[in-house]
Amino acid sequence: MTSVIHDIGYRHYDGKRLGRAYAVRSLFTHNLRAAYGLGRPVKAKIMPFLLCAIMLMPAAISVAVTAIAAQVGAGRDVQLIRYSAYAVYLQPLIAIFLAAQAPVIASRDLRFHVTPLYFSRPLSRLDYVLAKYGAFTTALFILLATPVTILYIGALVTKQKHIGTHTVHWLAAVAGCLLFALVLAGLGLVVAAFTPRRGFGVTAVMAVYLLSTTAVAAVQGIAENQTQFTVAQWAGMFAPFNLVDGVQVWALRAKQSAPEPPPSGIGGPVFTLLCAALIVGCVAILYLRFRKAGAK
Amino acid sequence: MSIIATRGLSMRFPGVLALDQLTIDIEPGVVGLVGANGAGKSTLIKILLGLLEPTSGQAQVLGFDTARDTMRIRELVGYMPEHDCLPPDVSATEFIVHVARISGLPPTAARERAADTLRHVGLYEERYRPIGGYSTGMRQRVKLAQALVHDPKLVFLDEPTNGLDPAGRDEMLALVRRIGGQFGISVLVTSHLLGELERVADHLVIIDGGRLLRSQAVSAFTQVSGVLAVEVEEEMDRLGEHLARTGLQVRPDGRLLLIDIADESTYDVVRDSVADLGLALVRMENRRHRIEEVFS
């Protein structure tokens, strides 16, 4: 055998090339990981994981308290946090996660002009937007549905009565979590996509949440004072959490958790339609935004 | 077969005509696209990638129509944009693996190709550190790596030497030459510096104000000029006077004497004169045109 030192040199790639669906999946995974700071320095992981941990705490405590109560024979007086109410109760935390992480998904590629590298590959702009939207929705869904599921597991473990009803409520709440995730991800990404500068995105997303929620609360307060209850109920659709809770109440038969339920009659359908319009509208706006950015 | 062919390509932006009826045919190899800033180089590349839609005219890349077969073209080409386009908080390895997957490479192949490609462009241990801490030269290498990682048939390199110091320029140009030679990948490389491309390109396309000025092989630009350059160790002036007396057109140029070649006998006259005067001949060569002279 002769001994030759091999300079491998340039090797061409003649292996498999997977198509567009694989590219979209890869982009989805990359963004889902990015939403939790994975594949990035430790600094990027702190915020999402800290918020996740805090999100889980009320659920864990609720389960623990219920278990202890059952042991001391006070099980009937203590109940688990309602599944469908969890997101509404913890909305400030969710809003912080949204504000902190939406810019990671929607602003960074714009701020650092990375988009041409994507759009010069076999990936359409709609693919790109849907992968990002899907990834961030999934990230939020994990944040919301995990504690709700812990509550349900707690219900099973502590052998709550009417476990069938628990199962139905839990499933409805998981559907509600998905709807929360879709609406919030859409709003967060749209705001962040228009504020690519560092720090601006976080502030802008937080501002949109706080302003809408506060303004709606003010209108609802005034309307109630004037006994204009229907006005107060309609006003709810302009605050994201109240809007989605309205859909939970109407379409998923949940008990109301937001300040106001949707108005009776056409209220529920209108809230649901508005949710759907928001989701489609956000995708459309993101598409237009990135179409413009990619051509630069 | 042409790798790039355009027919009457025009691109009008509000207030400016970036490309004006551009018709070119480009053969495989290293092709330099030269023009002043704003001549339409980047616009042309973006049209070829399907990132911009031309106002009128057609273009083909590797035999595919840019309007109809955009995705097919993007699978086969790589693109290195002119400006910075890298996210700062991921490592070069992480980023190159990611874009390889977006180009359709399966996970294992993406990792292998990323490692190979980064080595080929000259990034070693630093590839595990976040890109934010890289020098301009290292960033340019990462940008080049992302254009090559999927083993394209053709790469568009938009001003790859931008912002580099002289040593960095030389290294980048040597890399461009290797891509066209050893790697066997056709290259369309732009620069506003003619002298740079003269060193690496086989063919030059020169555009100005969106119009084609000239398209021909580099050898055609630098063909024999009919001038003989002679260098002697000392007493250049004596040789000059001697030659002038024989009726030749002689002019000094630094350490060289430039002599217009009248016919074949000119060489003999010069040789004999040097011998008669007992001078030491350093060199005697046919002068070639430099590309710059073509435009002066």
UniProtKB/TrEMBL annotation, chain A:
Keyword line: Membrane, Transmembrane, Transmembrane helix
Transmembrane helix recorded as keyword: yes
TM ranges: 46-74, 86-106, 133-158, 170-194, 200-219, 231-251, 271-290
Keyword Transmembrane helix: yes
Protein name: ABC transporter permease
UniProtKB/TrEMBL annotation, chain B:
Alphabetized SUPFAM superfamilies for the sequence: P-loop containing nucleoside triphosphate hydrolases (SSF52540)
Keyword Transport: yes
Record keywords, A-Z: ATP-binding, Nucleotide-binding, Transport
ABC transporter domain span: 4-234
Coiled-coil zones: none
SMART domains the UniProt entry points to: AAA
GO molecular function: ATP binding
Membership in a protein family: Belongs to the ABC transporter superfamily.
Protein name according to UniProt: ABC transporter ATP-binding protein
